[in-house]
Amino acid sequence: MIDLTGFLSPNHKQKKQLLVLWLVSILAVMGLCFTPQPHLFQGIQTPNVLAIGRLRLLLVPLNSLWSLGQLKDLSEVLWILSQNVMNIFLLYPTVFLTHCLSKKWHSAVKSFQLGFLMSLGIEVTQLILDILVDANRVFEIDDLWTNALGALFAYYSYHFLVKTLQN
């Protein structure tokens, strides 16, 4: 299962199974990120969201931390913090499986870049969806780094798995 260079080397059947899981993870991300959310969570307002026509932008870095004092109750605090935690793990399965399938992204920097680029693609697509169909999505600057952080966690998890299997 581990080749001489220290990477996972799945057989043909395992590679096909990993590829199916990878495709399912991509579809799950697309469903979570691109499904329109009209009037979803109306009672919860995220501070500092800038509205420009149909577009919703949250361009304040670390907005969750800076805005805690503006939130009305514990449910809003938990909602905002859970959004950040979920963003960290949004791309984790996809990037982890990418490492299992390809050696191309095998470094911490490359993995972080992959997560960042995937996140940027998601955020820009959400803007396009808002223009086309009023999807009620928000371009959040914090999503870029939280998703990239999740990709970095996936890289280190992959290496932990490889080291564990080698022993």
From TrEMBL:
Record's superkingdom? Bacteria
UniProt key word Transport: no
Q: Which residues does UniProt call coiled coil?
A: none
Keywords recorded for this protein, A-Z:
Membrane, Transmembrane, Transmembrane helix
Reply yes or no: does the keyword Transmembrane helix apply. yes
Q: Where are the transmembrane segments?
A: 18-36, 78-102, 114-132, 144-162
Please list the residue ranges annotated as the VanZ-like domain.
23-161
Q: What is this protein called?
A: VanZ family protein
